[in-house]
Amino acid sequence: MSVLNSFRLDGKVAVLNGAGRGIGAASALALAEAGADVAVLSRTKAQIDEVADQIRALGRRAVAIECDAMNSDAVTTAIDQAANELGRIDVAVNVVGGAMPGPYTRASDAALADAFDRNVTTGVRVVRAAVPHMLKVGGGSIIMISSAIGHLAGRGYAMYGSVKAAVDHSVRQLSLELNPKIRVNAVAPGAILTEALATVMTNDDIRKGLENGTPLRRVGLPEDIAAAVLYLASPASSYVTGQIIPVDGGLVAPNLPLPLPDL
Question: How many structural domains is the chain composed of?
């Protein structure tokens, strides 16, 4: 197989949890461009319907499944539906996550529990539901979307960084539990121009801080992450597991000026 052909996913099926927009949507389209049929999951049906239409325009099959990532039964049902409609599952990607920055000492128990559930447990739900289907076809690839803040330290990011570090270590542990048939890896983005970040990029100070704090002097695009997802999903990465791949422009420390109170 040529190196270029090793990025192909013809005959494979991918399911993405949190694929309605941003990184999830870009990754779904990248996998479809490489030949995969794709199931896109999200709470917002209109968004995944649009992504599914774009996948079909590329000549691939697509299903859009409304799913609340915080509901374990809903995730299992959605992934089972994806397997039934598309015939198999070879790749599973969890994009769901997030937590608001703020003083760690003032974070409530509920906020901490929600951050862990939203970032770590959502991935576990996808793994539990997808692995049986992958084993039926001889194996597969699981990809988590983590964050650079999982291995970098920045003021105001203690809660978010802690749960993303947990995501990273869950990837290492799962890779050992599921080898050699199923590979498990993560992509750790830096500042990426999703809809969430676009709302603060209108502030010149924040925009310049993000750009100047990144060695490549720009904010990343969802397609930058999608390219890494494609690599980890495809045979091109067949000798890669248990790894956290940074796609962050060379970031060494987050540089978002947060209005945090002094202790």
Answer: 1
- Tokens 């509901």 — which residue? 71
CA dist., res. 245 & res. 145, Å (int): 10
Give the pLDDT score at 259.
59
Contact 8, 234 (CB under 8 A): yes
Amino acid at 32: A
Residue 144 in contact with residue 157, Cβ under 8 Å? no
Is the Cα torsion angle 30, 34, 35, 36 positive or negative in sign?
Answer: negative
Which pair of tokens denotes residue 122? 């959502």
- Structural domain includes residue 180: yes
Which residues is 142 bridged to in the sheet? 92, 184
Q: What is the CATH number of the domain that holds 97?
A: 3.40.50.720
Q: Which of 158, 167, 151 is nearest to 242 (CA)?
A: 167
Whether 87 contacts 136, CB under 8 Å: no
- Residue 11: left (phi > 0), alpha (psi -120 to 50), or beta? left
Domain-located, residue 209:
no
Do 141 and 171 touch, CB atoms closer than 8 A? Answer: no
pLDDT at 202: 78
pLDDT along the chain (263 residues), means of 10: 92 97 97 98 96 98 96 97 98 90 83 91 96 98 94 82 95 97 96 79 80 88 97 98 95 67 60
**Residue 37, strand partner residues:** 13
Evaluate whether residue 43 is within a structural domain.
Answer: yes
Q: Which two tokens stand for residue 183?
A: 């590979």
Residues with a known catalytic role: 160
Domain extent, residue 31, equals 5-190+226-246
Within-domain flag for 26:
yes
